[in-house]
Structure formats: C-alpha cells, structure tokens
Amino acid sequence: MRLVSHRYTNTRRWATIGCVTVLLCGTGCVSPWWNDFLNPSELGNFREARVTEILRSSSFRDTPKEISGTTDPTPEDLVALVEAYKIGPGDMVEIRILDLLAKDAESVFQPRVDDLGWITVSQLGHINVEGLTARDLELELKNKAKEKGIFGPDYEPTVLVSVLDQRQRLFNLSGAVRQSGMYAMPRSDYRLQEAINQGGGLDDLVRWVYVTRDQLRPLEVRDTSKPYSTGAPLPTAGQHGTTPPVSPAFLSEMAGSPNPPSAGTGTPGDRATAVREDIDTAEARRELEEVLELPGNQGGPVTDPNEAQPPFIFVNDRFIEAPKTDSQDPAPVPVSEPVAAPAPTPEIVDWAELVAEGRQRIIKIPADKLRQSDSNYNIVIRPGDWIRLETGPTGSYYVMGHVRSPGNRSQLSYAFGGEDVTIRQALASVGGLDPLAWPSRCELARKLEGDRVEITQWNLARIIDGRDPDIYLKPGDVVNVGTHAMAMLLYKIRNGFRLGYGFDFSYSRNFADIDSFGGQVNPDTRRRADLQRRFPNLF
Question: Is the pLDDT of residue 167 over 50?
Fold first, then answer.
C-alpha cells in the first residue's frame, strides 16, 4: 500500500513540474533561455522597452568620414548685412569723367582691379581702389584730377563710377546638385534655399547641407621688439602732447652733448637707445631744454657726470626733481654707462587660439528642415560661402553565411539607397537567420585607409535584444554569420518532437510494420512464387 502511494506521489510531482514548465514557456518567462538555446536563430527581446545607441565606428582604427567641427545655425546667420559694395581684386569698374581728355567730351574707362587692388586711369595714374565703394572712388578720382591740375580747385568735375563685374559677391555650390559652380549674389538678403534652387533644387537623396564660411578672428598686432621698463607699450609721438618718459642718466647725456645721439646707436635692447629711436631729435632737444632749463645754444656740459644726479619723477607730463626725504642717501652716486635692459619676458602662446584664428566655420543644416520650409535654417548667404549638398551612404553592403537569403543570382549585394543601414536592418533585409545560424558568431569586415581590412566580432543576440549598441554599416562592408557544432544537434532536437491539440497522433514510418499499409500476399505463396521463378523446371 505504501509503495503504491509513493509511486502516485512521484507521478503527481513530475506532472506538476511539467505543467509549470509548459506554463512558463508559454508565458515567455524563460523566453531568453528558450530562444538562445532551443532555437538560437529566433532573436528578440519580447520583455521590455530599451533604448540603445548606434555606433558610427567599429573601433578606434575606423575613423568616421563625417565632417568634424560643424556648428548649428545661429541667430546672427539669419540677419542680412545690407551695406555698400566694396571694390576688390578681380572686379571690373566703369569710370566716366567729363572734360578729362577733351572739352565737353566724356571719357570712359573700364579697368579691372589687379590682385593688389590697383587700377590705372589715363592722366590720373595708378589708384588703389581696394576696399572703396563706388562713391568713395568718385571722390578719390575728383581729388586726383585736382591734384594733377586737370581741374581747378573750385571746379566740381562730373565723375560716375559703377562696378560692372562684382567678384566679391560670389558663392560656390557643389555636391549633389544638377549644376554646380560659382554663382553671383543678386542682393544682400540672399537665402540658402534660393541658392540651392539656382543650382537645380534640393534632391530627395540629400540629407545634409554644409556651408563653409571664412570667419577669421581679429588679430592683435603687438610690437615686442622694443623693451620698456614699466612693461607697458611705448606711447606714440605726440600722445598727451609730450614725449615718452626717459631716465635721468639719459637726460644728463643729452644735456651734455651739443648734438643728440643719433638713432640706432648703442646695443640692442638698451633702454636709452630704444627711446631715442622713437623720439624725433628736434622735438627731443626742445623738450629737454624745457625740462632742464638750458639755453638753446648751450653746447658744453652742464653737470659733471661724476656728480650725484638728483632723482627725477614724471608728473603731469613733465620731469621734475623728486623731493628729498630723510631716508634719502645724500652720497653722490656715479653715473655709469647705460645698462642694457633685461630681456622681455616671453609671452605664453596659446596654440589652440592661434590655430583657431584661421579656422573656417562649417554650418551643418539638415535637408529635411529646408524641405519643411523651416525659417530657422534658411540662413543668409555671405560672400565667399561654399555650399555643399551631401547625400546619405551610396554603394552596397554584403551579407553572407547562415542567413535566409545571402544573395541570389540577380542580387549579390544590397544597396544603401541614400539611407543609413544598421546590422539589425541588414538582417531584416535578408530575411533573418537560417536554422543553423549561431548569433554570437558574427563578424564585420570593413575596409580601412591604407588598403587594410579590419574584422570585428559582434553578438547579434545582444544587439537585437538591446543589450549592446548597434552599428551603422558603410559601403563595402561584409557581414558574415557563422554556425556552431551544437547548431545541428539543436536543429534535430527541435524537429524531432511535435505537439498537437485535440486528437492528434504522429507515427514515424521508419518503424512501421510491413502489414500496416494495405493487404499483403501470404508469405508462403510469395516464397513458392520465388522458387518457381528461380527454378522453373523443378516446380
């Protein structure tokens, strides 16, 4: 009795375990194990929502081919700068002057500005016109004619200037356009959409529009070749109505000599020499006479160089004798030769800023924003802009290995069609994995610079499940899906069992009895027939 009860308990226990397993498998609680082990080719998450990144590069060796250092449009890019046109190199101007060569006759000239910004006009000579407007050039021609004596000082000549060929208002259009080339800006408020339409319109495959713009930073010119005691820049001649301050030793030297020392004497870096190079000799002589109260024609020395010189201070743009204090040493101090000033401290060079001074600005604009007529991206074109329209990836990628359609006779590769394609999308395009595929064995072969190929490993199960980031394919990439030794065994196991509902019965014909299919001949009769066929004379 106990034995029967124990067997019944074990049977019920195993039945419970089987029912729970079937329920768990049906509800998907063990779907990761079910997919990854029983059927690895069936990929998916099927449990939760996840957000993962998409990589552009497969490794550090794979450099992205996108344009780096791009910026978004700013509010300043939407503002049109309306100003008079300034003449520059390559422009052709038309000049009309009345009474220049003959009385009551109009002289017409059409010179082209050279690379240095000069033109030549008959009777007026060479004129630098770079940076001038048409009105400025008219005034310059009038002044030139009066300086040459062609017109009297009270006569107002008739001069008309117009720019026929404006080379400073051009922009370039290239990339995915029907008519690339250089175009002229008809006005200052000329927008990006108008410029693209001028080249043939925005193609449906264009994804990005890049506008390269020269935007140099203002350069600060510094003269550090002449050191100064205070570290401040030397004031220019005539600033504040006086000359820059000088040392008392230099005052004594100037006062004791009938002729001031000439500029350029002394050692480089000498403080006195640096000051003498910037001060006009006549002006310096006059200022020194006023400061030292010397007669203008005095030529001999006023003070003994060996005597102590009173200290001087510079107050209200003048040198005055400093007041004596109790702590001041009355002992005479011999005047020595001018001592060279210490070398100026070299300035710290910010190389990043120096490089950025000549860097161009690249504005990146999504083409979809222009198609939607978003005014925030329809920027104003500036003279000298280079507009390039870029499409998405073009070319083909290849999928091989254990996939359902690795390529057929009519299509051995798959085209991008101007859209970015990831590994997930590539698997979808080939119909998924075949029953013998092993998702963790997937390799991506990608061409690198210098005729090299890099092969990286990717786990398709983790990518489809959302645990690993996906990656964008590039033209020429080859995706190869491999298999495993267990794949065939699992395939046989999956196809060895069948589950039906209701009254269903499966029977393998490999083990069926010979009598199970229709009526059969008696074995004795069949044996006798064989003997008669083999030995017809005996039976």
Answer: yes
